Amino acid sequence: MNADHHYVLRLGDDALIAAQRLIQWCTRAPALEEDVALANIALDQLGQARALLTMAGELEGRGRDEDALAYERAESEFGNVLLVELANGDFAFSVAKMLFFGAYQNLLYQELSASAEPTLAGIAAKAVKETAYHVEHAALWTVRLGDGTEESHRRMRSAVDEVWPYTHELFTGDEVTEAASIAVRPESLRPAWSELVDEVLTDATLRRPEDGWAPTGGRTGAHTEDFGYLIGELQVLHRAHPGARW
Question: By residue range, what is the domain housing residue 26?
Fold first, then answer.
C-alpha cells in the first residue's frame, strides 16, 4: 500500500465532495451576498481538491491526473469522510457542516504547512488562509442563527445535534494515517478543534451535544445513500463525453 498516496487522496476527496455539496447552494442561498460567499468557499475547496488530487496522482505513479481521480473512480473508491457528503438539508444544517469541517481543515492545514514534503506544505499554506475565512464565516452564521429568533435557534440547535455524530470520523486514525510518512495524526487535532467549536457554540447559546453514536466508513469507501446521487451528478458530463475539451 502506498500510504502517502492514499492519505493525500483522502484529503483531496474531502475537499472535492465539500465543494460539490456547497455549490448546490448556488442560486438557493438565503441572500444574494450569501450566494456569492458560498460559491467562493466552494471554489476554495475545489482549488484545494485539484492540487491534492494532482499530488495524489503523482504519488501513485500510474499516470492518473486530477480529472481521472475525480471523474473515473467508483463510489467505493472515494475516501472522504461522511460529514462532507451529507445532503445539504436546510441552511442551518449546512452552516453546522461548514463550521465543523472548516475548523478541522484549518487545524490540519496548519500542521501540514510545516511538512517536510514541499508540495504538500505549499498546498497547505495557501489553504490555511482560505479555511480560516470558512471558519469565520460559518461561526458568524452559527451565532447569528443560534442567538437569533426562537425559530432560528431551534433550527441551529437541531442542525448541530444532527451533524455532531459525523464529526468523530474526522479524528479517527487507521492504518493509512499510521503508515503515511506525511500524515498528521487526526486524533491530535481534536483538543484544539473542541476548544474552537465550544467557543462558537457558547457564543451561539447552543449546548455541545453528548457523544454517542459515531458513524464511520467514509474513509474505507462505505458511503451514505445520498453519495451515489452526488457522484452521479459530479461525473455525468465527463462520463458522457470522455476526453472532451472545451
Answer: 3-240
Helix axis angle for 118-146 and 32-60, nearest 10°, is 150
Q: Are 214 and 169 in contact (CB under 8 A)?
A: yes
* C-alpha grid cell, residue 88: 445539504
Cell (9 digits) for 47: 482549488
The SS3 of residue 39 is helix
Which CATH number characterizes residue 16's domain? Answer: 1.20.1260.10
Distance of CA 92 to the CA centre of its chain: 16
With bands split at pLDDT 50, 70 and 90, how would you rate the model's confidence at 88? very high
SS (H, E, C) 51-108: HHHHHHHHHHCCCCCHHHHHHCCCHHHCCCCHHHHCCCCCHHHHHHHHHHHHHHHHHH
82: nearest Cα among 220, 229, 243, 234: 220
Q: Are 82 and 169 in contact (CB under 8 A)?
A: yes
pLDDT tens digit sequence for 90-107: 999 999 999 999 999 999
Inter-residue contact 16 to 99 (CB < 8 Å):
no
pTM score above 0.85: yes
Number of domains forming the structure of the chain:
1
Does 231 reside within a domain?
yes
C-alpha cell at 65: 491526473
Cα 185 from Cα 175, distance rounded (Å): 11
| CA separation for the pair 10, 153 (Å, rounded) | 34
